[in-house]
Structures are given as structure tokens and as C-alpha cells.
What does this fold into?
Amino acid sequence: MKLKTTLAALLFCATALASSPHKYRLVWQDDFNGTTFDNRSWTKISRGSADWRRYMSDADSLYAVRDGKLVLRGALNTNLEADTARFVTGGLYTKRKHAVRYGKVEVRARFDCAQGVWPAIWMKPDYEIKWPHGGEIDIMEHLNHDNIAYQTIHTTYTHTLKQDQNPPHGGTYPIDRNAFNTYAVEILPDSIVFSVNGQPSFSYPRIEEHKDKGQYPFGAPFYLLIDMQIEGSWVGKADPKQLPVEMEIDWVKLYELEQEE
It folds into this structure.
């Protein structure tokens, strides 16, 4: 049964990646044409205990809008009297402000590379639920000096039950790490479909027989996070000599899926 399920899932992925016939309606976009980010759409991410959140800071020096682009920075902390964290990083999210249930998200971004640096573009449920029960969609994660982006799904099924290969819950795709790339995800009733620069890159299907195991918890609103991260159990230790780093966001677009009548 497991082999049969895996083969069916892989066949679905290949079919889903071949084309995207779905129609979308643009519901919100940000081109960052002002002098600072719009706090009606974005909120600074506060610090927390998770790896990705350990060095988040609201310091103004970590946030800017420059030449029509949002800039998020990661740096060695030089103000230890005000903040004892070794590093400080900037990140924004659209929690309680903009979310997608079924639709598409596109982000055009460029980021610096450095040892121990971990920029990310991702999505979480826009309601309170303990991770990973509500699911997580990683549109783009980048490590160190890699020439690839990671795109991953996390759920109770993949994380708690360790079913991360039945079907595969993530993939990688080549990027030009020195240039802007467009990262996208389509959230659909039957699958999550990723792309890079308009090219399909990875798809994760809904498996009906596993619906009671938290395999596909998608269909509720998800909000967007964009953050510069430093260090963690996955990316490893940072090299302070390679800091500071920047992450530039050219634009963000959110679409709703147009339902067929």
C-alpha cells in the first residue's frame, strides 16, 4: 500500500508540474515605492525561542525601503547594552493583515550569501494552532552560499509521524544567487505547487487516505513571512566576518483562486 501510494503521489506531482490551468485574481501587492514599509500591511517579527526567531529585532537599522525595494538586514550586534543577543535580524509578516486560503503567492527577491545566514520566504496559518498541526509552507529557504533554494511542506504527517517521503515533502531548485529570482507557491484544494522564475519546481499532493493523519491541513488562511535569519541547527554557525548581509524584496503579490462555476 505504501509503495502504491508513493507511486500515485509521484505521478500526481509530475502531472501537476506539467501545467497550471488555474485562474487567479490579484487581491494585494506591494511594490515598496514609499520611504518605509506600510505598517497597515506588515508587522515586524518579534523575537522568540525557535531557531529562526532567536535574533529577530525591531531595531530601525535592520529595516529600510531603498530604490523601490524592501531591505531586511542581518548583522553582528554592536549595541550589547540595549540588546544582549549576539546577532540581530530583521523580518516582517502579514499576520492578521493579508492572508491566502486558496490562491497564489509570488515574491521577487535577492539576498546576500554568508556562512550561517538563512533568509526565508514562507507561510503559516493565520490563526492560533500549535506547530506543526496547522501546516507550514516554505516558499524559499537559502543556506550559506548554496546555488539552490529549498521549498518544503511541514505538517503533522511529515514531522510528527515522520512520513516525509510518502510523498516527498520538499525539493530544491537552482537559482542565480547573485540576482533577483521570483519564488511562488500555488495553494490548491488538492496540492501545493511551487515554482521559481515561472518554472514549476516541486508539488505536494493531498492524499485522501491520509486525511485523518494531518497530511494536508491546507485550506485555511495562511499569512506571509519574509525574514533574514542567522544561525540555527540546520544552517550551522555564522562567520561574523561575513556580516552584515541584506535581503532585498522587489515586490510581493497575493492572488485568490477563481473558483469554477
Confidence is low (pLDDT under 50) at residues 1-12. The helical segments are 2-18, 156-160.
